Amino acid sequence: MKSLKPRIWSGSCAAILAAVFRVCSRLGWNEQIGNHHSLMLRAATICSSSIPRGMLFQEVTASNLITCDLDGKVLRGKGELRKVAFHIHARIHLQNPAAKCVLHVHPQYLTALSLLEDSRN
Prior knowledge:
single chain, 121 residues, alpha+beta, five-stranded antiparallel β-sheet, 5 strands, 17% strand
């Protein structure tokens, strides 16, 4: 992957992304474990949504987030960087520079609806 000099994000960006997690929780977009969000800063740093395993979306704060570069190297934060989420989001950001914030969510009841043969009814 393209390697760029990392730029650590500001506290306000971290606070905004943490707030996005909490809003998603209020909307019921936090079912299962496959949810993740990312924020791209100046095409140099991807702010992964990795949060400590077991933490609920409504508990996320700016200090819980993990920041990494486009090679997946953790620049700030503690906990496990979820490799699958990182690779999906990094490629989306690289292929679509206008996509500054990417959310992968599981809205309430979506799994059940997606299993229907004809979901229009």
